[in-house]
Hints:
- This protein is α/β, with parallel strands linked by helices.
- The chain has helices at residues 3-17, 46-49, 64-80, 96-106, 117-123, 151-155; strands at 36-37, 43-44, 54-59, 86-91, 112-114, 131-135, 141-145.
- It is built from 6 helices and 7 strands.
- A 5-stranded mixed sheet has the order 5-4-3-6-7. A two-stranded antiparallel sheet has the order 1-2.
- It has one domain: Glutaredoxin.
Amino acid sequence: MDRRHFLGATLAALVGSGARIGNAQETLRAIDWHDVTLLDGGVVRADALRGHPVVVEFWASWCPFCARQNPVLQQLYDANRSRGLQVITFSIDIDPQKARDYLRKHRYTFPAAMADDASRRWFGSRTGLPDLYVVDPAGRIVFHEASEMFPEDVLALSRYAAG
């Protein structure tokens, strides 16, 4: 089977399985997780991400669309963290203190870090905010949405939880 037919069959299988991706190439890239230092000084170990489904969101404290989506992401995190679904977010704010203040003001407890070179290598550059991905346990991006999602669609990401 040549590459063109292989990619077409792969895309057809993904569409048939309900996977949603913005770019077929995203499914071919695997995330090689490493430890992530959080805004609160904690660390999410790479081992906590590898082998688990992970919801990743890029956001900013000044983004009105993020302000509407983040409460729903918090609900997803609260409802599914005991089911193996990991959530990690990356702020694109220039000033880390603005991101910390935003998290504190809204009482968000989902893991949050600053976007850095590693997150850009893993997910590329931003095309919109909020920018949300789902990475499967094998490290493949299986879902990507570069805009605000409806609350019910964010909560439906619980389908990626293990149990």
